[in-house]
Design a protein that fits this description.
With 137 residues, the protein is mainly beta. It contains one helix and nine strands; from the N terminus they run H-E-E-E-E-E-E-E-E-E. The longest helix has 10 residues. The chain is elongated, with a radius of gyration of 25 Å.
């Protein structure tokens, strides 16, 4: 009795596309948020009881990434940084003054952590990365 409904239903469904797939109504994917980061010099030399400057360069900002927040990871007792946190607007660089106490013992490395931020300083959904900096004295 209703045999004609199935062929019409299949023809109607075949003409419809799905969101996000070729032939459909979506954009085929989301915008990529990304950036690159390098720490130089690496390996890094700091004399015990002294200090040295580490340069962190941020580049290749993609998507909604407008700036990058850099934070010194104080995972080694006796190794400190001034400042602890900096924000690089767009592509550019920042410098951290790393000091090492004269009686330092411990990890021969530290980290600089980075998180992307949009133009309104939001970090939700933004990429994160880090530099593991090998140091010696």
């Amino acid at each position: 009795m209703y045999r004609w409904i199935w062929p019409m239903l299949l023809a109607a469904l075949a003409g419809c596309g799905e969101m996000g797939v070729p032939g459909g109504g979506g954009d085929g994917g989301g915008e990529s948020n990304a950036f690159t980061m390098t720490c130089t010099p690496n390996p890094f030399y700091v004399p015990k009881g002294g200090q040295a400057t580490l340069t962190v360069t941020v580049g290749n900002l993609e998507g909604k990434v407008a700036k990058v927040q850099l934070t010194f990871g104080d995972n080694t007792i006796g190794v400190n940084s001034i400042p602890k946190t900096q924000i690089v607007e767009g592509a550019g660089s920042a410098q951290f003054i790393i000091s090492v106490e004269s009686d330092v013992v411990g990890n021969p490395y530290f980290y600089i952590y980075a998180v992307g931020m949009d133009s309104e300083n939001r970090t939700s959904g933004m990429p994160q990365t880090d530099c593991k900096v090998q140091w010696s004295y």
